[in-house]
Amino acid sequence: MERLQKVIAKSGITSRRKAETMIENGLVEVNGKVVTELGTKVSNQDEVKVEGVPIEKEKLIYFLFYKPRGVITSVGDDKDRKTVIDYFEEYPERIYPVGRLDYETSGLLIMTNDGDFTNLLLHPSSQINKEYVMKTAGIPSKENLQLFKKGIRSEGDLLKANYVKTLSVDPKKNTAIIKIVLHQGKNRQIRRMFEAIGTPVLKLKREKFGFLTLDGLTAGEHRELTPKEIAELKKLAK
Questions:
Q1: Which of 102, 114, 116, 170 is catalytic?
Q2: Between 3.10.520.10, 2.60.40.10, 3.30.70.580, 3.40.1190.20, what CATH number should domain 62-125+214-237 receive?
Q3: 25, 81, 107, 227 - which has most CB atoms within 10 Å?
Q4: If you ran DSSP here, which 8-state letter would residue 30 be given?
């Protein structure tokens, strides 16, 4: 759901500020009813008319993006660092990331301009698996890794993993390669979990989101999601 004035502005009819004035003056209809409340939110299924004319809605687009390390998952950055949006400058639509991967984390990220789709995937009830592989500074014990399934408290959050397995260890370098699967998506969740057991994460990559993988892509590349993939993601989230 998006605010009505934002939807009108995105259609290219007028600016958001002028759209607010038009709403207040009773010039906007939603599903055949005049709306004058600025807090009104609409979805892609709602019909919006401005002065009796239906607005042309922005084309909905969906991408699978291989986010590199050292890139901000944001539409902008006040420190002028590279953001994920910089990789999509050829598209006129106002796209944004679904969820976040922190600055030093690489891997699979979905990009879209579909707010309903985004909210569906990010809803707390969504049970979509997000699979990560990481390298740790130190070799965590099996007992500590099992704690993740019960949940670890960090900064007021109960952080849980659905699956965790050590793939390999290097005793000489005192490092380990570990796979972890989450349903949650708390800020810096995996790094916070491993910091809590005294095993910091050196490298982190999201390799899967549900059934989606990075196959065929290198860091910085993207591809469009197919209609079948979009439908399957919606089905998984519900």
A1: 102
A2: 3.30.70.580
A3: 107
A4: E
Annotation marks residue 102 as catalytic: yes
CATH 3.10.290.10 fits 2-54, yes or no: yes
- Pull the structure tokens for residue 34: 């005049």
Could you report the per-residue pLDDT of 95-143, keeping only the tens digit for each? 999 999 999 999 999 999 888 888 889 888 888 999 999 999 999 999 9
- Per residue in 38-94, pLDDT (tens digit) is 989 998 789 999 999 999 877 889 999 999 999 999 888 888 889 999 999 999 888
Q: Tokens 């979990």, residue?
A: 193
Q: Which fold has domain 130-209?
A: Alpha-Beta Plaits (3.30.70)
